[in-house]
Every structure is written in structure tokens, then in C-alpha cells.
Design a protein that fits this description.
- This protein is mainly alpha-helical.
- The protein has three domains: about 60-180, no CATH class; about 185-225 and about 440-485, no CATH class; about 250-400, no CATH class.
- It has helices spanning about 10-15, 25-35, 45-85, 90-100, 110-115, 130-140, 155-180, 185-190, 200-205, 205-215, 220-245, 250-265, 275-290, 295-310, 310-315, 320-335, 345-365, 370-390, 400-410, 425-430, 445, 450-470, 470-475, 480-485, 490-500.
- The protein is elongated.
- The two termini are about 30 Å apart.
Length: about 500
């Protein structure tokens, strides 16, 4: 189209005014005015099939043409131009190819399918680290053909842009399936056992320190502390489950109730027997030789023994009487180990529990095997709950840290923590989780009167809550079921996305 526009209707449309016969409506003329080629008419029948196959073939050849363009630009063309300046290069091939290509309206699915079908698209496929995925994605994206020429370095600029976009897409796909960071070995051991691990603690290092600092924020800090408490509750529950053999115990009281119920089931089968007295007597004598037991506490223990285990009283006990004796020993043990008690009181509690355990073990020995199974299970639950009760008794809310549970188990075994056998639950918990129980209230944060801090905490509450939820925490370290399922294919997924971006 050359010269000036003289048609009145066309002038009116260009000026935004109707004139005479109204606006120009001819599609070809409109396309010419807008600098576009007229849209191709939809093809039908075998022509449509041929068109789809042609576009599929174009997509299939895109990586090949793109690789050839790069090779031609940096290897072949310099030599050819040195020999014969002005010789035809891959630039001409790209221009001719793009000029003859007829794209449909909207997204070209057939060309994308051809891209994905080309084996070159899957170079470096399979599971890979995020950095490797970024590098592979940048390389794959750079294989997209481009019409950019050499003026002002446009070819290199275009390739750099393609590589940057491809690396970004691949990196995003990697983070989606692998999470922000891989959990530490100890955190992974806890996650595999069903323990909630806050994301910062799971990543370790600087992330754990940052999470610790974030707990002091107003409003949002509540969710961080809630996540940390949830982790400690999970560990304590797991310890009680393996002690009692009963799953789903919510707290220490539930664990003690479960152990007590098992013991009640065995009461009808209990028999008064010499083994119970002999084993309890051995534990009583060992307690009197404990140098940590004060003279006053030795008198308490002696009075307890004389009252309940003298021959005249003990020989008359039946099943219900034996149960009552057991309950009294348990009550005294809890009384002297209660929160706020002195170290000497806790030593007395330990010795009462030792006598109680020996007494129960003796009763078990004197029962027929077919009747002793329930009592045996009850005794195992009792022995397992003793260190939990001791560790939890140091706090009013009866929530113990993994370190406290570890020390209580070592004390029950009359040894040091360093000499205890490996514990696949508590050992990684001590290394990963907080050594103190987070407060559940807001008193400490309420002292922060800075309005900006409260505004920041309010804004951070929702993402913090999501990150500290069970699903959110696992997603941030790539441990959800769907992430594990997609991880082997994450690199291929990113490359398929990059193939789609070649359009």
C-alpha cells in the first residue's frame, strides 16, 4: 500500500469517526491497515489433517533447527563467510521456514506435541538436582529457533533470554517437586516415622535459626510455636505408643489410663505368691542402699514397706487387694515426682516405682502362662510410661522434650545417655527439634508494642500458618506423597513445559 489514503470511509475510521457508509469492515483491508496478514480460513477434511501433521512436523524439527542455527552461527557460518562472503546461512532457512508456517488461532498444540516428541527435548531427562535441572532447562530452551539477526548482538541477546526463561521454568518445576531444600538426615528419619517436623528445623542450619527468631513475632509467632509444640507432642506420643503398644495416645494422662486399663484386665487372674514379695523385697533393699536417698525419705520408704508388705497383711490379699496395693504405690510414685518437687523427692519416687515394678513382675511369675499375657502387657506398658511420667512431670502441661525423655530412659536403665543403645526416634529428635517447649500463650509477644511489628506479624500469619501445617511443612521439603511420585519425572516435566514455551 503506497501513497496517501483518500477514501472518505477509511479516513473516518482512522480518525475514529463514522463517515458516509460507516466503518471499513473488509477483513483483508483491516488486516492490511493493522500490519497483519489476513487470518487463514479454517481447513477442512484431509486438508485439516495435513495441516495438523505439518505443524506437528514443525514442532518436531524445532530443536533440530534451533541446534543447527546455533552450530551454524558459531561454527559453520564464520568459516563459510570467510571463504565466500554473503553465502546463504541458517538465518535464511529460519526466515523461509517461518514465512511459510501457518499457525492456527490460539495455542498451537500440534507444534507443541512435535516439540515434546523429539528425543532432543529429553536430553538430560530423569530425576536430577535443582541446579542440574536449571542448567538443562536453559540448554533446552536455547534450542528454540529465532529470527534475530546479528545486528547489535540481537542473536546472543535472544539466546540469553531463552536460556534464562528455560532455567527459570526448570528451577520452578524443581522447587515444586523437591521443595525449597532437602531435609537433613535426622529430620528425614523423623518424617519417615510420621513425626511432624517444622520446615526450618527440617532444613537445619540458617533456616532453623530463622524459624527460631520468627517465633518471637506478634501473631505469626503463635503459628511457629504451635508447629514446634506439635513436633514435641508427636515424639512423646510415639514414645508412649511403643511403650504401651496402644496407638493414638494424645497425652501422658491417656498413656497412664491405657496402662491402668490393661492392669485392671489382669486383676481377676492375679494370685498372691512368694515371688511378688521376694522381688519387691530385693528392690526395697536396693533402695535403702541408694546414697541419693535422704534419711527422711528412707523412713518414708520403710513405713510404706512395713504397712503393705508385712507377712500378716500381704498373705491375706486377693486380686482386688493386690490391685489396691499397686494403686497406692502408683499414687505415691506420682506424688513425689510431681511438678515442682525437689530432686530428693524425685529420687524417692524412682525407688517407689522400682518396688512397684518388681512387685508386678513377681505377680507375673506366679501366674499360669495363659493368664499372665495381659499382666505382662500391662507391666510392659507400666515400665514404658515411668520415664515418660518423670520427663513430663517437670512441666505443668506434662509435655517433655526429646532430651528429657532420653535422660529419663537412661536413668531407668541406670546408665548414662551416652551408653544407651541407639534410639531411631529420640536420637534424631534430639538433634532436630527444639530443646525447650515453646510457650502456647501470648504474654511474651504482648510486650511488643511496636505497631509496625504487629502489622508485619499479621501479614505473615497466613503464610506462617500454611508453612507450619503438616502438609505445608512436608511440601516445603519435598516430602508429600505427590511430590515423591513426581520427583523422578520432574526434569522431564520441566522440559515438556519448555517445549511448550518454544511457540
Amino acid at each position: 500500500m503506497s501513497g496517501y489514503v483518500t477514501d472518505p470511509a477509511l479516513l473516518a475510521q482512522l480518525e475514529g469517526k463514522p463517515a458516509g457508509g460507516g466503518y471499513v469492515t473488509d477483513p483483508a483491508l483491516l488486516a492490511q491497515l493493522e500490519g497483519k496478514a489476513p487470518a487463514a480460513k479454517p481447513k477442512e477434511g484431509w486438508d485439516a489433517v495435513g495441516d495438523r501433521l505439518s505443524r506437528f512436523g514443525s514442532g518436531l524439527m524445532d530443536p533440530v533447527v534451533g541446534a543447527g542455527q546455533i552450530a551454524d552461527r558459531f561454527l559453520v557460518d564464520p568459516i563459510r563467510q570467510a571463504i565466500s562472503p554473503g553465502a546463504t546461512s541458517m538465518r535464511d532457512v529460519i526466515r523461509e521456514r517461518d514465512a511459510s508456517y501457518q499457525a492456527p488461532e490460539g495455542f498451537d498444540w500440534m507444534r507443541t506435541a512435535g516439540n515434546v516428541a523429539n528425543p532432543m527435548t529429553w536430553g538430560g531427562g530423569g530425576a536430577a538436582s535443582v541446579p542440574r535441572m536449571v542448567a538443562t532447562g536453559a540448554m533446552q530452551a536455547a534450542l528454540a529457533p529465532t529470527e534475530a539477526d546479528d545486528s547489535n548482538g540481537m542473536f546472543l541477546l535472544k539466546k540469553a533470554g531463552q536460556a534464562a526463561l528455560g532455567g527459570t521454568v526448570a528451577g520452578a518445576a524443581g522447587k515444586l517437586t523437591k521443595g525449597l531444600a532437602k531435609p537433613t538426615a535426622d529430620a528425614q528419619a523423623l518424617i519417615d516415622q510420621g513425626v511432624h517436623v517444622p520446615p526450618g528445623a527440617a532444613m537445619g542450619g540458617g533456616a532453623a535459626k530463622l524459624e527460631e527468631r520468627l517465633s518471637s513475632m506478634p501473631i505469626a509467632g503463635e503459628t511457629v510455636d504451635a508447629g514446634r509444640r506439635k513436633a514435641l507432642e508427636d515424639v512423646q506420643t510415639k514414645v508412649m505408643e511403643r511403650a504401651t503398644g496402644i496407638p493414638g495416645l494424645a497425652d501422658v494422662r491417656a498413656g497412664n489410663t491405657a496402662a491402668s486399663n490393661l492392669y485392671k484386665q489382669s486383676v481377676p487372674h492375679m494370685r498372691n505368691n512368694p515371688e511378688a514379695v521376694m522381688d519387691a523385697a530385693a528392690a526395697y533393699n536396693a533402695a535403702l542402699h541408694n546414697p541419693e536417698l535422704t534419711p527422711a525419705h528412707k523412713e518414708i520408704l520403710t513405713g510404706l514397706w512395713d504397712k503393705n508388705f508385712n507377712i500378716d497383711n500381704f498373705n491375706d490379699l486377693t486380686g482386688e487387694g493386690l490391685k489396691k496395693l499397686d494403686s497406692e504405690l502408683g499414687y505415691l510414685g506420682r506424688k513425689y515426682s510431681a511438678h515442682g518437687g525437689s530432686p530428693a523427692d524425685k529420687t524417692l519416687s524412682d525407688e517407689i516405682y522400682n518396688i512397684m515394678g518388681a512387685f508386678r513382675g513377681g505377680l507375673e511369675k506366679g501366674m499360669p502362662a495363659n493368664e499372665a499375657s495381659v499382666l505382662k502387657q500391662a507391666n510392659r506398658a507400666f515400665r514404658g510410661m515411668v520415664p515418660v511420667n518423670k520427663a513430663a512431670s517437670s512441666r505443668g502441661d506434662e509435655l517433655a522434650t526429646p532430651r528429657a525423655l532420653q535422660k529419663a530412659l537412661a536413668r531407668q536403665a541406670r546408665t548414662d545417655v551416652t551408653r544407651m543403645p541407639p534410639d531411631k526416634l529420640l536420637d534424631p529428635a534430639v538433634e532436630t527439634l527444639s530443646s525447650k517447649v515453646a510457650d502456647s500463650g501470648t504474654a511474651g509477644r504482648a510486650a511488643t508494642m511496636n505497631p509496625l511489628s504487629w502489622a508485619e506479624g499479621a501479614a505473615a500469619w497466613l503464610p506462617m500458618a500454611a508453612a507450619q501445617s503438616r502438609r505445608g511443612a512436608k511440601a516445603l521439603v519435598g516430602q508429600t506423597d505427590w511430590q515423591k511420585a513426581l520427583d523422578p519425572y520432574s526434569n522431564r516435566l520441566s522440559q515438556a513445559m519448555i517445549a511448550a514455551l518454544r511457540q
